[in-house]
Amino acid sequence: MTPSTLLLATMLVPLAGALLIPMFSARPNIRDAVSVITATVLFVIVCALYQQADSPASLVLAEPLSGLQIAFSVNYFGVLFALIASSLWIVTTLYAIGYMRAHHERNQTRFYTLFAIAIACVMAIAFAENLLTLFLFYEILTVGTYPLVAHAGTSEARAGARKYLLILMGSSIAFFLPAIIIVYLQAGTLSFSEAGVMAGNMESIYIAPLMLLFLLGISKAGIMPLHRWLPSAMVAPTPVSALLHAVAVVKAGVFTLLKVVLFIMGPDVIAQAINSQYLLLLPMATIILASLVAMTRDNLKERLAYSTISQLSYIVLGALMVNQAALVGATLHIAMHAFAKITLFFAAGAILVATHKTRVSELNGLAKSMPVTFMCFAIGAMSIIGIPFFGGMWSKWYLVSGAAAFEGATWLGWALSITLMLSTLLNIWYLLTIPINAWFKTAPANEPASGEAPLPCLIAMIIPCVICIYLFFQPDIFLQLAHTIVGGDNT
Description:
mainly alpha
């Protein structure tokens, strides 16, 4: 198949799955098999596209206005994002089969259908040739995942979904769309470019305010104070939480933000802009504040949600430091965080299915009856923290190197390093204490033995857990892509 055909297939295959899945709503085994097969086929297609990423490929769907196209192209950054999303779609579907059935969730067919549509949107975002195309599918992703957040149908779920939609759509309309219009009026194009399109097209004094609009408008990246949608969405089932935190939504946010920094604004333009370095204060504050809030949360999924908010700002921080090491670290952290965080959410869901427990304070001694789950949780946590022998160490390594190489104000360079070190200590406290207490503290005397979650949940949880270890020893696939993306070999 040609690269152009593969490019089109990345979007059509999930949509085909979304059409087929409802046809088998009365035959859940076949329906679930269709979901797994569709996810696997997509992953194979993305791997084939990775092998041919050097070959130019593009696709134009429409040109609503002269010079404004809805178009797609193959690029290394898109391939990286697509590899992460397509591989995690497989394990999330496997996990959902065990979770949804064991938890007796209603509307399972709707879940699998909407999940497939969300992945199609992710593929469109990954390979968007310009900012207009990316924005359109960024918004479709928000609308398409709204019913997933409200999946339970309770008043709490509907309220969480409304907040999810209001914050994400509101910030896009108020900040993201005006920023896109400004770029088009100043540069005359929205197409992504290796050097960025704003160089020479805007006075330096206006670069930082424009970048601030993007930071606030791309609220899927979880920057405070536009972060509340994320913990509110935790009312959704665990497979949806995994979709939000690891596979699609938040990763679409940080992917979009990095695309803006690298290929719209341009790292050199941001570095030379007046007062742009003070934009770093937003992700720095988010990293620390979200970590402090996570420490106070007894609900396990809510604690993990605030952990995600903090970890996303590592990526934002790396993007805004705009030196090579930091940008590589930010790009690499998209992958490392995805595999580690999905492991943590799968473990949280397994605990819920097996024991009906949702609070951290209820987990003491539980590892004796759920050893696989808490071993996976510990490995995911250590990768998030950045401990050696787990993949998360490498993205943290590059981010810390980027902070050490920062060329702005001296006090800010020190503050960057202190922020990263302090947040790592906080990560240890609010994440690693969970499996430690589960292994070494004593469970209540009358606590019944629970056993592990269903086998599909365990298999799906073990796969990204093993990948967290594998990526320490073999980070090359994502590391080489990150260097290529930042180095400008391919946009």
